[in-house]
Amino acid sequence: MFCTPHRGRRAWFEFYSHRTSIERLFSVLKGHLSMDRLTKRGIDKAFTDIMICLITYLTGTLVQLKTSSLANVA
What we know:
The chain is mostly helical. It contains three helices and no strands.
């Protein structure tokens, strides 16, 4: 009910519009990179697991971009 920026304002709509992309990222991380099953206890170990998932996601994205740019050149 009380949030910053206030609901109904233009800044809130701009901020909220980014929610769908974040939800898609979480879906990929949970569904394909096993982020939904963290088996280690402790914030440091969980942080390490999540960072490994994010690095794996970014590496896969870079590989896809590289192969698609090579396919466009050929």
